[in-house]
Amino acid sequence: MSLFRRLIKLIRPGQTRCESHRVAQYNVYEARSLFCHLLRRAQRGEEIVIARYGVPIVKLVAYSHELTQPGVLRAQVLLNLADDRFVER
User: Fold this and answer.
1) Which listed site, 36, 39, 49, 55, has its alpha carbon 20 to 30 Å from 13?
2) How many independent structural domains does the chain possess?
3) For residue range 59-73, what is the model confidence (pLDDT) as tens digits?
């Protein structure tokens, strides 16, 4: 589907492929260029499917206020064991 038709769907979101369950599908390239608009549509309750090469990979839906956990901190520690200042004799 052309980008022009996708833009028309943004203006008229009620006209999707399946009226009983409103789901719109976009390829990754189109979703990247229309991401802000897709976020607004998902926030209003619409489900957006993002596909790669026509195969659905992600569903964009509104957040439902579930409990979240903070991310994990990752660190790297480098030890120089050849340094004689820290070796006990």
Assistant:
1) 55
2) 1
3) 999 888 777 777 777
